[in-house]
Amino acid sequence: MNDPKNFSLNHRHMCEGVGVYSSFALPVLNARIEPFFAYKGDDHDRYKEELGDVGTLNEYYTGARLWGRDFYNFDYDLWFSKEFGRRGSDDIDAYAYHALGGYNFKGLWAKPRLSLEYTYSSGDDDPDDGDHETFDVGYGVWGAWHGNQWSFFKWRNFQDLQVNLELWPVDGVHMVLGLHNYWLAEREDAWYINPHYRDPNGDSGKKIGETFDITAKVDPSKIFPNYSLLKSHHLSATYGHFFAGSEVPRELAHEEEDENWFYIQWTYRHSWKII
User: How far apart are CA 235 and CA 220, in angstroms?
Assistant: First the structure.
């Protein structure tokens, strides 16, 4: 609560939370395992139940991440989270996971890295059974997770099968080409670009569409090492294209046409000693 004269400890806050996280090395696999646990709660009656009433929130997250880099030229990244608790009178029973496998072709030109990823977050297959099965992000970002830089999706009732090709054609240039294929996890649940995009009968199907994107990151000082003025400058740009089709879920969201997305960024970093 923004009040310059009073200290607010328990008034008008969104939620209360606590969490624990750790990371352990696994030398045998050249990997790390990272278990976690988190709680998020709110004692205000503002969480809608499936049967229409509202209640308080008590939700818990537990899971772990196992990842390794350059294990005999292979990369892997596995992450899983289980969500449980109560949302009013509804039982929370949801989960999400992400799996990545990649290989580094170090002996080829541009040192290509090819990887395959799959991201899943559970949805609710019955909007009236008193079980909340849609995965909710407890804390963290909604947007650019696991290589997904589009605002068409939130990490709820969602599937993404992704293929990536990374290239380092010259020193100081890193390029990433990505192809995504999107589905809903449960056809009876919503497409959470907007919670109103929901067909409770499931007649709209699961398929959403595909995207292609290309990202380039450039460090000019490595390309032109003799020019000191280029030091600490970095450039990045991304272009993406959303391939629209005739599936009904996009028609619910009025996304029948293709969409394009683009950004360019210039960053300059400098530090100096004051004392």
Answer: 8
